[in-house]
Design brief:
The chain has helices spanning 12-19, 25-33; strands at 2-4, 10-11, 37-39, 42-43, 50-51, 56-59, 62-67. The radius of gyration is 10 Å and the shape is globular. Strands 1-7-6-3-4 form a five-stranded mixed sheet, covered by helices on one side. A two-stranded antiparallel ribbon has the order 2-5. Helix content is 25%, strand content 32%. A hairpin with a 2-residue loop joins strand 3 (37-39) and strand 4. It has a single domain, classed as Roll (Structural Genomics Hypothetical 15.5 Kd Protein In mrcA-pckA Intergenic Region, Chain A). It has 68 residues and is α+β, with helices and mostly antiparallel strands.
């Protein structure tokens, strides 16, 4: 799935909500803190991580590609 952003970056937890994979910020926080989210192939535990165009996020079996 591709997500288009019109800003320089979006925070990881906000991106997960925007994608519809999680429904709340609390759920996003839980999945991130449990090590279930990978950013560019590496596990990310920072929910405020700045995600920019070109980044690739993996959660469950979903892949999100950020474009602008």
């Amino acid at each position: 799935m591709q997500i288009k952003i019109d800003t320089e970056f979006i925070k990881l937890d906000s991106l997960l909500k925007l994608s519809g994979i999680v429904s709340t910020g609390g759920a996003a926080k839980m999945f991130i803190q449990n090590g279930e989210v990978r950013v560019n192939g590496e596990t990310c535990l920072m929910r405020g991580k700045k995600i920019r165009s070109g980044d690739r996020i993996e959660i469950f079996d979903e892949i999100i590609e950020v474009i602008n």
